[in-house]
Structure formats: C-alpha cells, structure tokens
Amino acid sequence: MTLNFIRYIYKHPFNSKNKLNGLFRYLKWQIICRLNKHPIIYPYTENSKLLMWKGLSGADSNFYCGLVEFDDMGFLLHFLRSDDLFVDIGANIGSYTILASGEKKAKSISIEPIPSTFKNLTDNILINRLQDKVTPLNIGLGSSKGTLKFTKHLDSVNHVATEDEKGTVDVKVDTLDSIISDQNPALLKIDVEGFETEVLNGAKNTLKSKELKAIIIELNGSGDRYGYDENKIYKKLIEHGFKAFTYNPMLRELKEISTYGNHNTIFIRDEQFVKDRIENSRKIKIGNRQQSI
Known about the structure:
CATH topology: Rossmann fold
Strand order of the largest sheet: 5-4-3-9-10-13-11-12
Radius of gyration: 18 Å
Order of helices and strands: HHEEHHEHEHEEEEHEHHEHEEEH
Helix content: 25-40%
Structural class: alpha/beta
CATH architecture: 3-Layer(aba) Sandwich
Largest sheet: 8 strands, mixed
Number of strands: 13
C-alpha cells in the first residue's frame, strides 16, 4: 500500500469521523482475501451490491471508503431519477451503472470495450437483477464507426492503444449518437483514458439535447497520448451551455469553478433544475455503514 493510497483512505470523507476506520477496513479486506479465494458479494448501497475479489481495481476501494469516487458518485445518486437515462461510457466493472440502476432505478446504457472487464460488468448486472434496466455494450466509442485496438492487460486504465503498444485486442467502435439513436440521456459519465475528445466528436446530437443536464468526465491529461488538447473539451462544453462544478455530497453543495479539475469534473447545464433535484433527493445508506448521504 503506497503512502498516497494511505492518505486517500485516511482523508476520505466517509472516514472523517473515524480516521482509522478506512485503514482497519483495508486490513480486514486483506484478511478476507487470504481466507476466501472466491469473489464476495459486497453491499454497495442499501439497494445494490458489487462482486469483489482481491486485485479487482475499481471495486476494493469501495470497501475501504464506501464510494471510491465520492463526489461524483454522490452527485449521480442525488441527481438521477427512475425515469432518467444514464449512459456510462467506460463502465469498467459497472460501479456507476449499479448505483444508477440498482439504487436509483434509472435506465442505463453501459459501454465497456475490454471483453474480460465486460464479463465483470455483466456479472454485476446479473447479481443485481438489472437485466431490464441496463443495456450493456461490449464496444468502444469514437467519432466514427470502425475498429480500434485497445490494451487489455492494464486493468482499470486500459485504453485505445498507440502504435507502439503490445498486448492489444481489436474492438468494434461506434458513435454515441448512433447507439442512443432517439433516446435522450439526462447524465453521461465519460472515462475513456484520454479518448474523450473522440467520444465527444461522435456525440454532436447528444450534446445538443435539452434533456442532457450533466456530464461527469475525466480530464487528467491522458489525452496527451493521442495529441489531444483537453482545454478544447472544456471550451466545447462551455459553448454547449455547460458550466464546470465541484460537488460536496455531505452538504449537497455545488460550487462553480472556472476550469476543470485534474481528475473528474462535473459539467452542468440548467443549474437550477439540477439543484432542485439534489435538494429533494432522498438519503441513501452507503454499504454496511451507518452513514448516509
């Protein structure tokens, strides 16, 4: 466990009342993994669960901290309603999808290009009995239809491969506009390890939709590997009427910012509509803890 990871657990908002709680849970997880070599079913929220096992990146941090991406997942839980459509682009094992459809009962389209990770996603959909709520797609997204090579051995940071990368898999690629057709999502989550520019280039109609109120997007400099300037993504979203925000789930507080963060950033359009939803959202118990948000 690295020093940065220890800091992350120690400072996580869900461990704030007991700073050592997350570290104790980390040790507990190590013991569980040594005694039980099979996947466990973890109570994710009061109405959802996740399959977890040792080394499954993107899942075990939920055990230590309740919600691994606390601010963004908290926003999703407070914003979404049962009649919404959520599109999870770069779904990985389905952490966001399960919150959206398992806890908030929204419809989801979940896109995960890596076949082995897609299997984990569909397993989580099955254990939550969400086959009627979630449409999983084993494809990539880009600016046009075709095929791209993806890395396949980098766990949660698999990405569209560059020319010099080995150990790849060919994946069919489509555009967001094409796969959602005449459906109108209320929320997008885009985490595609630097390929966000191409995803948005294939989402021209989606971005124009008045039903789309918010986008959670990862802008951390990964676009550099493809020669993309992420400042242009920020400008594009601003031009479409979005503003950048941070969110505090404990206080249910949105705060406008003048640029994007170094990880995920929440972009919102129709700010008052979003605030009204947040303020009127029910409290949700996280995992097997006593805390709710």
